[in-house]
């Protein structure tokens, strides 16, 4: 029987030990890239894009993250096209993170796949684990939202600012609160309202 590496255990969602040479290599690569990214200015946006392409497992067209930005590895994260994140994004990707197309993050959003055992003895022995997070297409995450491990957010969702997302959120809803719960469905009235607002914009 072949022994799995700590990285394989980590990505499978099993208990693992973070103090591992392979994981340290990935971690240090991310920190080196993040240092350059976070010290860049608005005249270096093309270089920022190159850094994100090197950092993430996969990233679509036109990614934009406003520094500062922090992540553990980056290489366990997949991001679709037209991704935007405001200041202070924290992305702890010890388990896979998948973000769809046309997703917007407000400031200080936290995406946390990481977990620690509840038992204090096992926890202090250095064991950790992670569970994946998935965010669908056309999603807007408000400022100061925390997304906890093992959560899936559907398509066309709005998460209100300050929410703590602990359970799956279905498609086409506005959800808010701690814990985050569905407030209402997004419907045709929303579409009509915002189409009228768009028309008023061009009239003024």
TrEMBL record:
<dbReference type="Pfam" id="PF12464">
    <property type="entry name" value="Mac"/>
</dbReference>
<comment type="similarity">
    <text>Belongs to the transferase hexapeptide repeat family.</text>
</comment>
<protein>
    <recommendedName>
        <fullName>Acetyltransferase</fullName>
        <ecNumber>2.3.1.-</ecNumber>
    </recommendedName>
</protein>
<dbReference type="InterPro" id="IPR024688">
    <property type="entry name" value="Mac_dom"/>
</dbReference>
<dbReference type="InterPro" id="IPR039369">
    <property type="entry name" value="LacA-like"/>
</dbReference>
<dbReference type="InterPro" id="IPR011004">
    <property type="entry name" value="Trimer_LpxA-like_sf"/>
</dbReference>
<dbReference type="GO" id="GO:0008870">
    <property type="term" value="F:galactoside O-acetyltransferase activity"/>
</dbReference>
<keyword id="KW-0012">Acyltransferase</keyword>
<dbReference type="InterPro" id="IPR001451">
    <property type="entry name" value="Hexapep"/>
</dbReference>
<keyword id="KW-0808">Transferase</keyword>
<dbReference type="Pfam" id="PF00132">
    <property type="entry name" value="Hexapep"/>
</dbReference>
<keyword id="KW-0677">Repeat</keyword>
<feature type="domain" description="Maltose/galactoside acetyltransferase">
    <location>
        <begin position="7"/>
        <end position="61"/>
    </location>
</feature>
<dbReference type="Pfam" id="PF14602">
    <property type="entry name" value="Hexapep_2"/>
</dbReference>
<dbReference type="InterPro" id="IPR018357">
    <property type="entry name" value="Hexapep_transf_CS"/>
</dbReference>
